[in-house]
Amino acid sequence: MHIYSLIYKNTICSKVEDVSIKDLKHLYKNGYGLGEDLVEHLSKVRISLYKCPKSNFFFYIPSNLEGDATYYKQLELRNKNYYNTDSWEFFKAKKLIHRNEKVLEIGSGNLSFLRMLKDKTSNLVGIELNDTSVYAGVSEGFNMYNIPVEEFSKTHNEEFDVLCSFQVLEHISYNNLDSFIKHSLKCLKNGGRFIVAVPNSSSIFFKEKQLLKYYTNDSSFKLHCTTLALNMPPHHMGLWNENSLKSLVKKYPIKVKSIHKEKLAHFRVNLVRDILISKASKFLGLKLSKFLCNKLFSNEFIKKYFKGDSILIEFVKR
What is the pTM assigned to this prediction? Predict the structure, then answer.
């Protein structure tokens, strides 16, 4: 049975690879704040990665693998930094929002962005499916909704100047993406802006999908395990980059206004260098590769020339 592109109607997507559940469990076992038990239910599931050849959008099949509320609650309990309070995209998006505009955030998480905007506008609404976050938001005076955007859009048609969604799109399964985007845009006024941030799958540490033979230290190894584990089901269902995000204008009534890419964080530097050493070692051997990469690729060089975690794109509704 063929799987067709979300954007290009008659384009057939191709299978890139199958996911080894054994390898996935190994990543969860060794990653920060994870654990094999979080993916035990996938033991008998066959997971495959597909690619749209035109948009360069990668996605996982089957589509019913999205993590449920229990899965995300466990991630939050095991890793106190799971929800960032000072994410790069929050600061970037705040600069794009004008004073007193009416803003809807889909996926408000720990409310950090809504709190950040309070000095710029009081017209703030959040959609969040986590009951605890909704209760906390209401107690702080925010207008919160604990319903899917498909339901919310029925009574909030063309109401908002700005719609924000940070680190949400990649969690939505292929079968549900079209509905999510369509109903999100229904909430936005014509001329309003849709601000989206997702992990940038073009970054080297997302593209290097196999564990390395060499790591500088255990921290680098654990970071790579965590990065790979959380970039697959049940956590991430889609892998986005600049091309796939820009391709959304082909299907939906939006146009690109601006694109912003996060700089490489300092905690990623050792992992990036380890990946470079691993690639070079295939031709030069490990000892010489370590010497050359440590000599040539300083921390400053790596942070300057390698992409960071996220990409933010600002669309305008037509």
Answer: 0.95
